[in-house]
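Q&A log
Question type: sequence-to-structure
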Amino acid sequence: MRTTRLRRHTSRLALIAAALLCTQVQAKEPGADLLQSKCMGCHTAEGNDSYSRISHQRKTPEGWLISIGRMQVMHGLQISDDDRRTLVKYLADKQGLAPSETEGVRYAMERRLNTVEQFDEKLSQTCGRCHSGARVALQRRPAKEWEHLVHFHLGQWPSLEYQALSRDRDWLEIALKEMVPDLAKRYPLDNPAWTDWQKTRPKAEVLLGQWAFSGHMLTKGDVRGEMTVSAGQGDAFKVQVEGTYADGTPFQGSGSAILYNGFEWRASVQIGDTAMRQVFAAVDGEMKGRMFEAEHDERGLDFTAVKEGKARLLAVQPAFIKAGSEAELTLVGSGLSGKPDLGPGIEVTQVLESSANQVRVKARAAADAAPGLREVSQGGLKGPSLAVYDKVEEVKVVPAFSIARIGENGGSTPKVQGRFEAEAWGKDAKGQPLRIGYLPAQWSVEPYTEKAREDEDVKFAGQMLENGIFMPAGAGPNPERRMMTNNAGNLKVIAQLEDGGQKGEGHLIVTVQRWNNPPLP
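Response status: OK
Response body:
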């Protein structure tokens, strides 16, 4: 019964997570009063606006949302959606993380769920077998609180030590005597970075104005455009986005945003018929992160933006040109002026369009241009690199490892697509590997193992479309499969370049639905 209730509430919590991405609604009580009225039934006051357990942790907005949701599920906390939003905002501002403390693990907040984590073996085996290591790295506690967390895990899931992959070691002994002191040292509550950030944290109004952005969306290519941020109430904003995909298709939309802890930007934006979420770090006049579909977080784009008044060259699109060829290139940034320079051996033959945020040119690469990276400049601005290549030496499928999920077919859980691009690599003039960029390719799948061939995974798991999108099959038992199993599969993804025919391979696991979808994986 408890498991069913937890699963149902976790799914609901995933929907409520959108509250982090919308304009804050005025709650009935301010954050400090809410903490007293909603939390002191279990947490005791320690003086100086401090409370047991709560005041000895620091987390991201998503982390605090998970904590409050757990109080609702496990301890019967009664709180409205509006009050929960206010409490998350209050705690994330008062006990958040400094920008530097989130570096390297922001992929969890940005819903980059195909990320292969790179933690040490001890943390991966002790913590990362049940959830991402990033969930651990995105919180701060003293040693006593890390110890409490270990006991909470064992108390809430008593069979933890006997579940798969915990039987081969003394999990509790390792967790308490090795992991607790290690985590307290690695992720301490008291940190100079947090102290310094509280002193220098900017006001929300510095984000008001025009932002030029560039990005890349798997299977759609480069994107560019402008985002306008206008004042809402408090740390809330109104947002308007207008941009263009690589193929020239325009898009525009509007929505609302809220700023947590001086830099954690969360927005909900409607682009046409599609609801999109923005999870950015807004620091020093720049925003960086990911914008993705609310219902399909696998469909998203990398996003980098710079505010008007801060001259910067963000990107050149596309970021490659073949020796002996002509191409149309676009320089994206803010405060652009002067003449574009694409580096030795690259001639700008015509300026097609020029503005403060975008310069579009025709360029010609000399037939004898040396392969390698060129520093691109616009007036006095420098930044992105342009790859000049003579031939493709290798093709890599990106992502190299991916997970898709069956769904729908009468059920409530949508399919999770696999999305791939072919990344071409060459060699520079010194014979060193040279990343060229994403090139058009033909796509197919094959069985990854003999067992996958025997089970006919290619036939049942789904279909690879022409644009690098893998569409998984429907959910539920399939009477046509052996033992009526579902449409899971273990597949090899093959990209073959349209120009040159070189091939690359990736790995795709097609698996079951994602029933629990918490704000942090």
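Response note: DSSP finds twelve helices and 30 strands in the chain.
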